[in-house]
Amino acid sequence: MQQNRQQQQQVAATATAATTTAASPPQQQSPRKSISANVAAGIMSKSKINRLTRYIKTKVLSMSTDDYRKAALFATSSFDQDFQIPDLIGQTEILSEEHREKLCAHLPARAEGYSWSLVFSTSLHGFSLNSLYRKMHKLESPILIVIEDTDHNVFGALTSCSLHVSDHFYGTGESLLYKFNPHFKVFHWSGENLYFIKGNPESLAIGAGDGKFGLWLDGDLNQGRSQHCSTYSNEPLAPQEDFVIKTLECWAFV
pLDDT digit string (tens) for 14-57? Predict the structure, then answer.
């Protein structure tokens, strides 16, 4: 008798549960939750997980360095509203507003938000590398070198520190080379070597490898040379390997 009563109670409970399930609409899981639930439950196979992982990695690794920089810049909603080209302290004979806007996207973080201060110009201080060194004595700032050659090509370098005479190469991977003609291009550190900057009274070299220099200037700041070098894996910055300097400016971020 008691056993029959227990069986009846079980049947009633099962019927109630079935009715409740039928009355309740099915809940649709989001794809992300479904994947997570399947993985947790061990339903998704390892091969499927591996394929998904490879797909995600492919999408991420296909982004170039410039894509990452653009994403970092435009991910902040305030960029378009608040971004302003920094003020210039000093008169430039080379840089246009477009030049400055493009260069701003490649400045190291510690240079962002500072005015650009003219510390050396061949028009003001003469065509002398030693004068350039003297103007940067005790200056602690990255330096933007801007060159216009006699064919009106604009190019240069960003160094991680001020320029000075040294028996060995110095600087960090913040340094880079760039050119505007025929199109704007930036050449960041390749990681191949540490030949960032080397200066002596007779010449200044930025980037080197296999006897070639990314940017080389003579002691009179009259003639220069630009070649492909391992440090930046760059293209020559000027159409001709050897060029004549019309104007050279150096800007600090202070």
Answer: 444 444 444 444 444 444 444 444 434 444 455 554 554 444 44
- Contact yes or no for 175/162 (Cβ under 8 A): no
Give which of 242, 209, 197 is closest to 224, Cα–Cα.
Answer: 242
**Non-local CB neighbours of 194 within 8 Å, separated by 6+ positions:** 169, 231
> Which residue is listed with tokens 């980037």?
207
